Known about the structure:
This protein has one helix at 5-18, and strands at 27-39, 42-56, 61-70, 83-95, 102-116, 123-137, 143-154, 159-170. By secondary structure, it is mainly beta. The model has no long low-confidence stretch (mean pLDDT 84).
Amino acid sequence: MKGFAPFVCLGILSSPVLADEQDPVVYVGAIYSHILYEAGDFDGDLAAYGALLGFPVNEHFAIELRYLVGEEGETTNVGSSVDVNDMLGAYLRAGMPLSDRLYPYALLGKSKFELNGGAPGDGGKSGLSYGLGMQVSFTESPALINIEYASLLDRDDYELAGLTVSLQVQY
C-alpha cells in the first residue's frame, strides 16, 4: 500500500493550488475491463469489473481510485487457466476539454494485480500504469461514459493491457 502514498499525497497537496477554476466534485462509477494477458507463449483474454472513485482537482486534473475483481475460469491459448483475483489502482488523470461533451485524457498511476492460475505473474504484482481515454458527457445529466486503453502492468515475463468502459455519476 505504501506505493500508492505518493499519488494520494500529490492529490491532497495539489488540490488547494489547482482548485481555483471550479468547485471540486466527486464522481463514482462502475467499470468493466477486457484485459489482454501476454506472457511468452501464453495469451489470454481476462474480464474484470468493479468500481471507481474520483476526485476532480480542476477541469484538467483528477485523482482516481479503482478496485476490480476478475471472472473465474479464463483460459489462455495453451489451455491453462489464469484469473484476475483483484486489482487496486491509483491514478492521476490529465485532460483537456474539446467541447462540453468530449474530454480526452491521459492516465498515469500505479496498479496492483493479484493473479491466480499457475501462469507467469501469479501472486501480487504492482507497477506503473498509463493510458489514453475519452470521456463523453450527456447534456444536462450527471452521467458520463469513459472508454480507455491502458497498459496496466508491464513486467519482464508478462504484460497486462486493457480496454475499459465505465459509467460514472458526478456529485
